[in-house]
Specification:
By secondary structure, this protein is mainly α. The protein is built from nine helices and no strands. 85% of the residues lie in helices and 0% in strands. Helix 7 runs parallel beside helix 9. The longest helix is centred in the middle third of the chain and has 30 residues. It is elongated, with a radius of gyration of 18 Å. It starts with a helix and ends with a helix.
Length: 228
């Protein structure tokens, strides 16, 4: 068997395993979506139903809700494997640790980020966001949610060995999420004014490219420290 075939097999195996476990425990998929919907529903009740006000605040509301929803599953990304000892076995396997880490991050994004992208038009409509801004909303979520998973994986790896690491995980990850939040909401605001928002998307894309290259190495190193 060629080396790249074995790499692809371990990548797909880890990815499928995490996705299958998540679908068996459907709360891992439903909870982020339900939380996202609750946050977006509560904002109009809290600030009033004025359409112009809702449309002005919609980008920030959508992205804050997406950011917090993504964080719900971060603590479980490596914890179950750590508790049953399989994480240590994966790290000791002859396959690159970065490959295994990337598969687990991709599974986390599939479970938490992808449903948000699919449901984004409905959520945007609830907040009276202009149809011209829908494309920007979907594009920023498509680029930004994988970035959230990659950044969040670093915090999850650093706190996986702690009994109650959820609060510390939030403190580690939230400051790193702020640039994503700023450029994503700026892109949606700019599109709502019928202006070019490719600059914001380019910055988000550059951040995603850097994270794809560097985050798996950082997560792998953090897991080795946490497991040892």
């Amino acid at each position: 068997m060629k080396k790249h075939d074995s790499y692809w097999r371990i990548l797909s195996t880890v990815y499928k395993k995490d996705c299958v476990l998540a679908f068996r425990q459907r709360s891992e998929i439903i909870n982020p979506l339900l939380f996202f919907l609750i946050v977006i529903t509560l904002f109009p009740l809290g600030i009033g139903p004025e359409p112009q006000l809702l449309a002005r605040m919609a980008p920030g509301i959508i992205w804050v809700a997406a950011l917090l929803s993504t964080m719900l599953g971060l603590d479980k990304m490596f914890r179950e494997d750590f508790n049953d000892g399989s994480l240590e076995q994966l790290l000791l396997s002859p396959f690159p640790n970065t490959l295994i880490v990337f598969a687990k991050i991709a599974a986390h994004w599939t479970i938490t980020g992808l449903p948000l992208i699919i449901m984004a038009p409905m959520f945007a409509m609830l907040l009276n966001l202009d149809s011209t801004a829908w494309n920007a909303t979907i594009l920023t979520l498509a680029i930004g949610t994988p970035l959230l998973s990659l950044i969040g994986a670093i915090g999850a790896a650093l706190t996986v060995g702690l009994q109650k690491g959820g609060v510390l995980l939030s403190l580690l990850v939230l400051p790193l999420y702020i640039p994503v939040l700023i450029f994503a909401t700026s892109a949606i605001d700019t599109s709502a004014m019928s202006l070019d928002y490719s600059g914001q998307l380019a910055i988000l894309g550059a951040m995603l490219a850097v994270a794809i290259v560097s985050a798996p190495f950082a997560v792998s190193s953090a897991l080795k420290v946490s497991v040892s």
